[in-house]
Amino acid sequence: MHVFRSVILLFTACGLLGIANAQNPASGRGGGSGPPASLQTGGRRGGGRGGFQTLTLVTTAWPDGGMIPLRYSQAGPEISPALQWSTPPSGTASFVVIFHDLDSVVPNSTDDLLLWMLWNIPGTATGVAQGRPDIFELPDGSRQISASGSRYRGPGASANGPVHHYVLELYALDTLLDVQVPPQGPQDPNPNPQAIRASVMQGMVGHVRGKAAYMGLFRRPQ
């Protein structure tokens, strides 16, 4: 009787163990259990976006943190500078460049002065050539605006005030931006550059995969 009872208990234990293994299959040789492999990868499924990356942005127009030459300012021919940047994360679809005056403020707002904003620069680009033409949309699909129109606006801090700090910012995005801008001439003031800038910034939320910054100083000569 004792032997028969022991055999029954043994078969019962084996059966329960088999059910447990079927409901909780081992994830590997280590014997641990976990979610299906398709849910163990980071990021969106199939996205391959990767994480955030600090980029390097440079220009030969002026040294980082140095004085901006007159040729790139409102006191000169107002030529847009050439920019170059480091290799972005995989999956980069476009770049955004923003050039703004940290020491200025747009009346009746908290926005500083927008001197240049480029967006939808192709994700394969490694930089921006000097002297971009005064046009809203270029053949490569990139777009540009400033407080002065569809063009680059150079620094213009008054000779009677302090030196102003100007920042170039580069963003690598995993998407293109669909921002609607009313048609305008290259020298026509934008109807609402703050709203356009806000729309671009809002569209970037959740899509920034890399960033870099570069500083310049300027004050008009006496």
How would you summarize this macromolecular structure in one to three sentences?
With 222 residues, the protein is an alpha+beta fold. The protein is built from two helices and ten strands, in the order αβββββββββαβ.
Q: CATH H level: which superfamily?
A: PEBP-like
Q: What is the number of helical segments per DSSP (H or I, 4+ residues)?
A: 2
- Strand percent estimate: 15-25%
Query: How is the biggest beta sheet arranged?
Result: 7 strands, mixed
Taking all residues together, what is the mean pLDDT?
A: 80
Question: Which structural class is indicated by helix and strand composition?
Answer: alpha+beta
Elements, N to C (H/E): HEEEEEEEEEHE
What is the domain tally? Answer: 1
| Helix residue percentage | 10-25%
What does this structure look like?
It is a single chain. With 222 residues, the protein is an alpha+beta fold. It has a single domain, classed as Phosphatidylethanolamine-binding Protein (Alpha-Beta Complex), CATH 3.90.280. Helix content is 15%, strand content 24%. It contains two helices and ten strands. Strands 1, 3, 5, 6, 8, 9 and 10 form a seven-stranded mixed sheet that branches. A three-stranded antiparallel sheet has the order 2-4-7, with no helix packed on it.
